[in-house]
Design goal:
- The protein has one domain: 7 Propeller (Methylamine Dehydrogenase, Chain H), CATH 2.130.10.
- The strands form seven sheets. Strands 4, 5, 6, 7 and 8 form a five-stranded antiparallel sheet that branches. A four-stranded antiparallel sheet has the order 3-2-1-29, with no helix packed on it.
- Helix content is 6%, strand content 50%.
Length: 348
């Protein structure tokens, strides 16, 4: 009887400890960050429950993007400025570093003449790659110091976003209004090639198998280039402004945009949010979201812990969560002001 009582007491204590452990700050394992331009700052969420954990305050000027360290313990937030791409305004020149355990700021790196830091990517090496829009370059940063360890010119204005190969030998930048893609040789710190896209191109991503690098055109096309020879393999038309896309782990591609090709200014976040699902093997759109997703295209991300699609509607201050198979709306998450970038991580 005493043994049974002891077992019950131990089980009760374990249950209390487990509940306390799960609810305690800094002990969330799966995280989502949402950058909110109008906050200005970012909100950290528990990615399993879609519940906010804490806020990251960056001061007066707006961030647009963010990234996590490989161990998920640090969030990197570049401070872009007070306006959107291509619009005159204040020019940010810092990257802020925050603990994900409590959203406390731990460092701030001044990028100097490399103004408007924006797109970010973190390599397996831990190196942080960041575009400088007005510096027409990408920055290679050692976040442990933190310090800029190298820069590579893109030879194009409006360098906005980037993607880097898994081996960290090549980087691809979308130079939006220049209508170009810059291909950079990372080991030799030089530009290898410039590709003319003929139209404003937004965002950049690489397929999971490394076969393609992909960008989105304002005229309503998604371009798939071969990484083997940097040539255009094929394009897929969508019935709207193509803006930002991501590959799922299974190779299926999801594209987010605004309005229709005939909607004035839709590409700059004024039109209704659109989402398309593309099968690269078939080279066609295989599903389209048909429900009201708000307006003000922000960003698209795939939650790696449940495979749901998350898209931000900046005008509505919300994130729409979609079923990856059907693109049906599952739920809406209210956010603070002007949500844009969405990223996920696991804390290790």
């Amino acid at each position: 009887m005493k043994a049974l009582t002891l077992i019950v007491m131990v089980a009760a204590l374990a249950a209390v400890f487990s509940t306390t452990h799960a609810a305690s700050p800094g002990l969330h394992i799966h995280l989502m960050i949402v950058v909110e331009k109008g906050l200005p700052g970012a909100t950290l969420y528990d990615a399993d429950m879609d519940q906010p954990v804490c806020n990251m305050d960056v001061g007066a000027m707006s961030p647009h993007e963010a990234a996590f360290s490989p161990d998920g313990q640090t969030a990197y937030i570049p401070i872009y400025g007070s306006t959107n791409e291509g619009v005159p305004g204040s020019n940010g020149h810092t990257i802020d570093f925050f603990r994900t355990s409590d959203c406390g700021q731990i460092a701030s790196l001044d990028t100097g003449k490399y103004l408007r830091p924006h797109g970010m990517w973190v390599g397996r090496s831990g190196t942080l790659y960041v575009t400088s829009e007005l510096g027409e370059s990408i920055l290679l940063i050692d976040p442990k110091i933190p310090r800029i360890i190298a820069t590579i010119p893109t030879d194009s204005p409006w360098t906005h976003m980037l993607a880097v190969t898994a081996d960290e030998k090549e980087a691809f930048t979308s130079n939006v209004r220049s209508k170009t893609i810059s291909i950079l040789d990372i080991p030799h710190r030089k530009i290898a090639k410039i590709i003319d896209t003929t139209s404003d191109n937004h965002r950049m991503t690489i397929s999971p198998d490394g076969k393609w690098f992909v960008t989105s055109l304002i005229e309503g096309k998604v371009l798939f280039y071969r990484t083997s020879d940097d040539q255009l393999d094929f394009s897929v038309p969508v019935d709207g402004w193509a803006f930002v896309g991501k590959f799922a782990a299974d190779g299926v591609y999801y594209e987010m945009g605004s309005g229709t090709p005939h909607t004035p200014n839709a590409s700059w976040g004024i039109g209704p949010v659109r989402v398309w699902k593309i099968n690269p093997a078939k080279r066609e759109v295989i599903a389209t979201a048909t429900e009201d997703l708000g307006s003000g295209t922000g960003s698209l991300a795939i939650n790696p812990f449940n495979n749901d699609i998350y898209v931000s509607a900046m005008v509505n201050n919300q994130i729409d969560v979609l079923d990856p198979a059907t693109l049906k709306l599952l739920r809406k998450l209210p956010t603070k002001e002007t949500p844009d970038c969405i990223e996920f991580t696991t804390v290790r």
